[in-house]
Amino acid sequence: MAESLLTRVFKVCICCTLILLCLERSGTDAANILMIGNYGKGSHFLALVPVGRSLLKQGHNVTFLISEEYSFRAQDAKYSELFKFEIFHNSDPDYSVKEFFQKLEELGFSESGSLLQFYKLFSTFSRAIVKTCDSVLEDEAMMKRFETLDAIVADIGWPCSLAIKAYLRSRSRNDPRLILTSPTTVNNAPFDILGSPYNPAYQPFTMTGFTSSMSFTQRLINTLSLFSMRVFVSLMGSEFQSVLDKHNLSSYLGGSDRMASWRNMTDLFLISCDFAMEFPFPLTPNIIPVGGLTAGPAKDVGKDLNDFMESSGEHGVVIFTLGSYFASYTSVRPDVLKIFLDALARIPQKVIIQLKDTPSIPLPPNVKAMPWLPQNDLLGHPKTRLFIYHGGNNGFHEALYHGVPVIVIPFFGDHVDIMVRVTSRGMGLGIDRAHLSVDYVYRQMNEVLTNQTYRDRAKQLSAIFKDRPMTPADRAAFWINHVINHGGDYMRSPANDLPFVQYHLLDVFSFLLGIVCLTVYLSYKFLKLFIRCCVYVLNSLVKVKRD
Rounded to whole angstroms, how far apart are CA atoms 255 and 262? Predict the structure, then answer.
């Protein structure tokens, strides 16, 4: 009898638990979500993985679209056991996605970084956008599978998400939500698309290396840089138009021009920043800061690595990496590698360095080389004393999360912006590649390692960064789920619906200026008349006196 009663109580508890879970999940049906992270390459892909995990926890189905050149992602157990993968094949056998990233790396290691090289990169990037998107749209079987999509979460660097949504509108009448992301520091693109203000008077443009306090010359450069980037984006859009025209998608973009198309197609934008380190600026409701997607509590690094870390004693360990995009400097620039190795040999700390290829020069006894680093886990190890790296946004937030001082060696793009944020907040220093020498690199490392101020500041900023109600990935997943259920129209700024004259209040200022001018004119006429009257009266009085 007692067992029967316990059984019934147990069943009631199970039923109540299930009911509560159902109530908690009410209104959150499983959605089919496609995630696009820059062909599956590097930090752009890795930044979306934590968001995908959070979406899975909410019960959604998550699929990643990647290039066949990065199909190893689909064979990696840590991803394949969680996500589905769609792999697109290049329709042009003479073209390679990796060509773009190779040219990017060459530009990063260039001594001059000339404008000509930048335009070569632009040309390659344009080809990548056109050819890869065309390959996706030509795969009719894959596009057919996309007809059940409820949302597309895509990196803004590859505008094919816009074409995929337009294709689904044209063929299946399906209209999935579009959520754009970017793993880089803040730039003007999402603000222009969604109507959020971007003021070059205090918002430093990407790649300028300015802070929010700018001189006149810096504000002039900042404004011209913003204008140049808008021209650049327009040129990129012109290249992409050929894909839209080929597949007859232009009429399904929801706008008369490219910017209107982006605006009307996009429900939400996730920007990779956090105001613990970012210069303050205003945001519209449909732009959500989610900086630190790859940062989190450290996991066990394994026995071999942990033994190496612990063997460092009180001096600790320095982590050195140039990331997935520039880690092949072993063969590209062996002279640069030698400078760093000679400088690292001088410090008492042990060093873990990422090298894709085996170097031709011997490693110092305190240096351990690895082709890949569990970066976040190493940064969270209690023996880590310094992080030296190229300035990627993911690594920046991981170091911030764990309170590790940083030395930034900027190569390209937003790396210099990360360096400015690190140095302006007192979290570390930068290294100018134009003046590389063993002594210079050693001085910078020694300053950060021996000056406790950098570590104290890093810990203080880390405390601010971690004091939040949910993780960045959970925050991103919450808002993705929100726009799936409710859309993003209600969060759209009316700014983009206003003509240039109205948005900048030129008509209002013109009217007020007219009132002021009219008042001044009438005052002038009245004063002139008053003076004439006074003169007339005086002349009359003088005449009367004479008579």
Answer: 8
